[in-house]
Structure formats: C-alpha cells, structure tokens
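[worker-b] picked up task from shared queue
[worker-b] task type: protein-ligand structure
[worker-b] ligand name resolved to pyridoxal-5'-phosphate; SMILES cross-checked against name lookup, match
[worker-b] sequence length check passed
[worker-b] input payload:
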Amino acid sequence: MSRAYNFSAGPAALPEPVLRQAQAEMLEYPGAGASIVELSHRGPEFLEIARRTEADLRALIGIPDDYAVLFLGGGATTQQALIALNFAAPGQPADYVVTGHWGRTALKQARPYVDLRIAASSEADGFRDIPARETWRLSADAAYVHITANETIHGVEFRGAPPDTGEVPLFADFSSSIASEPLDVSRYGLIYAGAQKNLGPVGIGVVIVRRALLERAGQPRADIFDYRAHLAAESMLNTPPSWNWYLLGLTVRWMLDEGGVEAFARCSEAKARALYEAIDGSGGFYRNEVAPAVRSRMNVPFFLHDEALDAEFLAGAREAGLIGLKGHRVLGGMRASIYNAMPVAGAEALAAYMRDFQRRRG
Ligand SMILES: *Cc1c(COP(=O)(O)O)cnc(C)c1O
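[worker-b] inference finished, payload out:
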C-alpha cells in the first residue's frame, strides 16, 4: 500500500517532507557522525535543535517574551495533573468547563490536588454544545479556569474570542488545535498541548505559560513535576525525548515554510467545510449533531444512519486510500481528523468518497 490520506486522531499524519528529512538524517545527522537519536542531548547538535525549535515555535504561534515555553516528556494528560500541582495551593478551588471527553480527563487528573469546581458542563446533552459564558459559575478565588480549546473526540471547538475570566487566569488544552489558526496567547495564563495531533510525534508535550504565574508556590512536589525546575534546566532536567523533540522541530519549521498559522487557518476552513457539507447535504445518510457554531475544524465525528454499514464504509474507504476513520470507542461511528498535515485534497477525497458510498448504498 502506498501512503494513504491518514485521518487518524493521534498519533496523526505528519507532513511527508518531515518524514523524508527524518529518514535522510536517520543514519547520520549532518556533520555529526551519528544519528541524532544516538547523541547526547547536551551536545552541540541537539542544543542547536532545541534552540531553533523554541525560536520557530515562538515565531509560528506568536508567543510573547513574558511567556516561557517548556518541552516536556509525557503527553497532555501529564500536564493536566501538573497544572494543578504547580498553580493551585493545597485545597484551593480550580474551575473546569467540561465540553467533552478531554475536559473530563482534565478533571480527573486534577482531582487529587484541588477543590474541583465544575463551572459549566455540556455533558447532560451529550457534549454537543459549549455552555454560554454567561452561564458559567466561576469562583473568585480559583487558581485557574480550565477549558479544552478543541474536544478531539466530541468534535466541539471554542470559536471566536477566548472567554473572559477576569482576574483568574485561563488555562487551555490546545492539544488538537494548536497552530491551526492565529492565537492570542496573551489572553491565556497557560496553554498546553501533546504534540501528536498537530505538532509532531507522540512522547512530547509543549507548555506555554505566563512567566509571572511560575512564582506561585503550588503544592509540595518533586523537581521533576515542577515547571520552574524544568524552565531553569531549559527542559533538560532529565534526558528529554530528543528524537520526538527533533521531529517536532522539523514539523514546526515545515509549518512556517508553508505560510504559518494564517495559511493553515484557511486550509482548515476549507477542509472542515468540505466534510460538513458532505454530511449536511446527505439528507440524513450521515449525521453530526454538534451545534454548528462550535463544530470543530480539526476533528469531524459523524455517524452513518445505519451502523450496520460502518464496516463496509471503512473497508471501502481503505480501498480508496483513506485510513484512520474509525471513531473513538467512547462515541463509535466515524471521525475524520484533519490537522495541518492533511492537505485540502485529502478532505475533498473523503467528501467525494462519502457521496459515492451514499449513491451506492443510500
Ligand atoms: C489526545 C488528547 C489528550 C491526551 O493526550 P496524551 O498525550 O495521550 O496524554 C488530551 N487532550 C486533548 C484535547 C487531546 O486531543
């Protein structure tokens, strides 16, 4: 099988030029006499990769100087626990807005460390919408307000200006939508993302945090769980996942070369439009139940009107060079993830396949 259009939710498709460069440099990183995977993270080659990756990520996302950037082993789930340990005093409230599966995970990871408050939740109606900001019950003494910018499984995304949380800093899980459109970092206290959706490979996560927040005492914790200690050590408190970091660096550079977040915002709109049109125009053969105003541009979950057709739909898709479409076990059905590495042509090919399948089986 040649390379297909890969709609996997994560680990997800990487840009082909990134894979090719990694392949070319696998045996010998230029001038190093060894693979980057075999070299010390404290050697000149890797230190240069680390320096360049941070500079490129700052340029790509527009990260102001008063924000620190950390590259940490472990995924987004790790950060969901660490944010509580680092920024909430013992027993301090933390507000959570739960709009899908990952918001629920965030709650669970923070629960041992904070006085957990659910400020708003759309769980009762199946995570099909985002509760209006006016309905949120925020605590004045909360350590932070946590949101999930894009719910990767439920396909629900915050659109428009980030919610105003006053004096309490807004913390956001951007794992599946970072770098997909312009982002005003200054509106957030902290942004975190596992890399394997839109930034590169699994095994590394990025934390972007307002430096002033790092002065908070948080809770007793070992160095290795301490963001301040990681920052002081330039994210090399222990051996970092250097190969993953290198791949993340190549991916970020590719995004800059492709025109940056504005270009990806345009592509994302086009890809999402192609798929939602195929769903909405199917007369009920396919359905997506998320409120149109908050439908995700990155993950499009959809259901066939008769789930007995699911297996045939997936097999035919594979045949047509479209893989990774099986929905998450939490929801079932289908899910098309259309991150930055997915070209518009891939989403169009899927939309065409969906129409064709409906013609044959509708
Ligand atoms: C995938 C994902 C996570 C979990 O990431 P891990 O790297 O597996 O810990 C958390 N939040 C969101 C929004 C995700 O998409």
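[worker-b] attaching auto-annotations
[worker-b] The radius of gyration is 21 Å.
[worker-b] releasing lock
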